Fold this protein.
Amino acid sequence: MAWRIRKDLSGPPPEIPLVPRALVKYTRLTTGIGTVFLAATEKGICLLDVETDEAEFRNRLRKSFGEIPVRDDVALAPLSEQLRQYLQGKKLHFTGPFDLRGTPFQLKVWNHLLSIPCRVVRTYKEVAEAIGRPRAYRAVGGAVAANPIPLIVPCHRVVASGGRLGGYSLGLGLKRKLLGMEGYQGRLRD
């Protein structure tokens, strides 16, 4: 195949498709567990962090979504209210929508986490078996740790075998507190 150089430059240039960029909005809440930052695109909730610096949170958003995030407490008020109700024990699940971005494996794990009901915990091994990858329990642990919206996608409901708490990106003390707030009655070890 021979390459041809376009000699006639009088017409319009060929169109280059633009990749749409997601407008990212975020808000800051003061809660019983500390300062919570919550972000969403037009598709849904995309990032949550606790006790971080606002500039650091904005940098994470910029790196993940490719544009400068905008603080918009009014637009995110309904999401903020869902989170407040959850942390007060009044509403124990989130309705979404979510804008989760990850590998196909991570997305499969995160979607399964959404199906774990309150007052119930699953082990990493049980999650691996449930998604059809029974030997991938360590990879499940990695996907759980990479969850961009902890609290909302309930990764705190996944524990290590034998009732050990395992890990939690927001700290084991908060994991134990969340499980207690949700009414989990089982024994947990550190």
